Amino acid sequence: SIGKTGNITVKLPDGTDLDAKHQVTVIVTDHKKAPQQGKNVAVKGDLGQSAAGKTDKNGELTVPEVEQAERHGVYIVGYTDGTFGPSRSMTRAEAAAIFARLLAEKNGDTISTVANTRFTDIPAHAWYSGYAKYLNNNGVTYGKSKTIFAPDDAITRAEFTTLAVRFFDVYGDGDAEIMEQYKDFNDVSDGYWAAAYIKAAAKHGWINGYGDGSFRADDEINRAEVVTIVNRLLGREADEDYIADNLRKLNTFPDVSRKHWVYYAVMEAANAHTAVLGESESWSK
């Protein structure tokens, strides 16, 4: 559309193709298809964001991708004493809560405790009962057996990886550009029960082995490793500048200082924010 001032506004329809650099090119011509130089052009997307500039001698203007925004909710919380416990192991109940919260947020669902689940060792209205049932109802099967959940057991690296892959199969909206190659872990044989899940997760860059080439599948996974894996899986990253400028408004933990290697992964996981997605993730209120 062309306003009275001669400025041009271009509304991009849903599904507009962008080039490899995530940009779009607009070409302005007159009724005889002659290029129009120096025309002010504003390109707007369906979320209201815009990019603007003037056309060159060829009547062209290339602008960055119109940004998209999505809501990132809290998927992990600290303990009652205010700490996060980055080196603490994670129970199977806590792991279920993470993936259930993420899936419910995407689906727009609310999870409440329930009286009955398929698992005989989950008490009625236990804090994690609704999470366990929600995952099971959505095809993310997660028990020690068909009837045993073992909520208080520490989850192993193999178990967490298996849960993550099963979750991703249902969630279906992770990072599409994660690495496509992986090296076999020297202690995960093809006959190991979780081998396929571990290799799938390694292939997509969600998990890493250790420097000696091992995976240590039966070791317990700690909470720092968990948030790192989940953020990789979902393609989420913290906005370091926003965090520095708004620290007093954010959830922080005395045992995860800014110098801690998992600091920004924890901040991403423990603080709800609107993420503006471009070449990197930036946060807004």
Using the CA coordinates, give the radius of gyration: 24 Å
What coarse outline follows from CA principal-axis ratios?
elongated
Distance between the termini: 32 Å
Question: How many DSSP helices?
Answer: 7
Main structural class: alpha+beta
Number of domains: 2
Widest β-sheet, arrangement of strands: 1-3-4
- Percent of residues in helices: 25-40%
What does this structure look like?
This protein has 285 residues and is an alpha+beta fold. The protein folds into two domains: 8-66, no CATH class; 74-274, no CATH class. Helix content is 26%, strand content 13%. The chain has helices at 92-107, 129-137, 157-171, 195-203, 223-234, 240-245, 263-270; strands at residues 8-11, 23-27, 40-44, 50-54, 60-64, 68-72, 273-277, 281-284. The strands form three sheets. A three-stranded mixed β-sheet has the order 1-3-4, with no helix packed on it. A three-stranded antiparallel β-sheet has the order 6-7-8, with no helix packed on it. The protein has a two-stranded antiparallel ribbon with strand order 2-5. Strand 3 (40-44) and strand 4 form a beta hairpin. Helix 1 packs across helix 2 and helix 5 crosses helix 7 (263-270). The longest helix is centred in the middle third of the chain and has 16 residues, at 92-107. It is elongated, with a radius of gyration of 24 Å. Mean pLDDT is 81; it is low at 1-5 and 175-183.
